[in-house]
Amino acid sequence: MNVDVVVVGAGPVGLAAGAALRQHGHTVLVVDKLAEGANTSRAAVVHARTLEVLEQLGVTERLVAAGHSVQDFAVREGDRVLVPVSLRRLLTAYTFALMIPQSTTERILLERLVELGGEVRRPCAAMGLTQTGESAAVTLDTGEVITARYVVAADGMRSTIRELSGLTMPGNVLPLSASLVDVRVDGGLPTDEVGLYLAKAGLLLVAPLPDGIFRLVAEVPDAPEHPDLAAAQRMLTERGPESNPPTVTEVIWGSRFRIHERVADSYQAGRVLLAGDAAHTHSPAGGQGMNLGLRDAVAVANALHTALTTSDETELDQYGATARAEAVRVIALSHRLTTMASAPQFVRPLRNVVLRLVGGSESVTDGFGRQLAGLAEG
Fold this sequence. Notes:
The chain is built from ten helices and 19 strands. By secondary structure, the protein is of the alpha+beta class.
């Protein structure tokens, strides 16, 4: 089979890249090793800059309609707000963070890809890669060979295509483990705010999702693989609101993760381009990972369009340099947030005093809001 571009990986990044390429009129095949898309929430926020970029694909209105818009972010100590961050003053049409499960984002992107004439082939894993000066060939575990002008690796942190292309993604793993769990609760949690609670027991992120569900993320030593109702309740009791403590009534889904901070040395090796977690990975603090990947996807598709129609690869070089620089900035931001939130116990009282002082400056909090939204200048 011959196509202009083969995209390996059918998560949000691969689907967005495929849809953007089809929007430009190119032949594209998206392949994925999983028999079906994940049905868990995982990444759960789409920020303003990403919504602006996704307008190109015609999916932004669909996403907004399916999600839950939140205009306030607050760093809290129990019931006390240390740093209030409002997104209402952002210079964009999207003065909010869109809380939406990754499974919904993937569904909408897949629908758009199919509408544009694209295709996802499952389950088939990429097992081999060869390149010439004019094309690349991806060998699937089915034995089929897909020949393309270019290959986009959107197959995650442990990318097979990145490894086969010879690109590396150095970095480190932070000595932290965290629990992530989606729950329903009885009372106590606001539906119009994302809260980062800084408690003696440790940090807790609480984010409202559609349909009355809340996402909880907490740094937990030896985090369980599948946190249960009791574990979720402990998170909220020990770290969350104090005056009206919520009761967990149901666990929808849960997981655990370690925090990796890595970025590829280069985003291109011959006919192979990296995007999303195949190019960078970092702390989930600030909800930047999928957003950065989605912006990668549209940017690499636009650069590939120029290369495919003019044979000028200058924009591919620019994509690699610009996207990598943005990834380095995002990793630095998420690292600062993680370090602040997970400070040693003896430092936490002083940290909270400093945060209260910082929280009184509207210019500082507005600047932080712009960073979260992806609208801050380099």
